[in-house]
Design goal:
Layout: H1 4-21, H2 34-42, H3 48-67, H4 76-85, E1 111-121, E2 127-131, E3 136-139, E4 154-159, E5 165-169, E6 175-179
Antiparallel strand pairs: 1-2, 1-4, 2-3, 3-6, 4-5, 5-6
Helix pairs in contact: 1-3, 2-3
Length: 181
């Protein structure tokens, strides 16, 4: 007898994964994992009992692949959070983080707002600021900050011209920075 857990898992995984791998603007779809293809194939089986057996088998295979971490399914909210956490780091173009034909420009992260966790000044007088979310930024220009950054103060980092980044601490004028961690 079919339990609800595998069928629910299969439906959930199919619903979350399918939009991310669907064809984009006439381009060939990205290669999908075999375990996922097996689940999609079950839809083509006409006989109800055979289709149900196929779904049971495919759902069990998906569950095992997920437990082994051979297959990871993420939703758009998780992708957005990862993009936010990686903001400012130079990474290779990975389809999982967007960049496809269906991505909208308004989804691109151009600014992050956080809180100062710690700040230290180097020998050149430039600030290295660690944010609450774990990102560390170092000042690349020599413009002084009127007030030293202190833990708990609001900070915003936004994308500047030509791939640069500007950081404002506690509403002070911005300084150029780059992400180091």
């Amino acid at each position: 007898m079919m339990t609800a857990k595998p069928l629910l898992l299969a439906a959930l995984l199919a619903g979350l994964a399918f939009p991310a791998v669907a064809q984009r603007g006439g381009h060939q779809a990205e290669r999908r994992p075999q375990t996922f293809e097996a689940l999609v194939h079950c839809r083509t089986i006409a006989d109800s009992a055979a289709r149900l057996q196929c779904y049971d088998t495919a759902a069990a295979a998906l569950e095992q692949a997920a437990e082994r971490r051979d297959l990871v399914v993420v939703d758009r909210a998780q992708v957005r959070e990862s993009r936010r956490r990686l903001f400012g780091l130079a990474l290779p173009h990975l389809p999982i983080f967007g960049g496809g034909d269906n991505d909208r420009d308004d989804q691109e992260i151009t600014q992050i707002d956080s809180t100062v966790a710690s700040a230290v000044r180097n020998d050149l007088g430039q600030w290295q600021v660690r944010l609450q979310d774990g990102g560390t930024w170092i000042q690349t220009d020599f413009n002084p900050l009127a007030l030293a950054p202190r833990p708990g103060q609001p900070v915003s980092v936004h994308r500047g011209a030509l791939g640069s980044y500007m950081m404002r601490v506690n509403r002070q004028p911005g300084v150029r920075v780059r992400r180091v961690l």
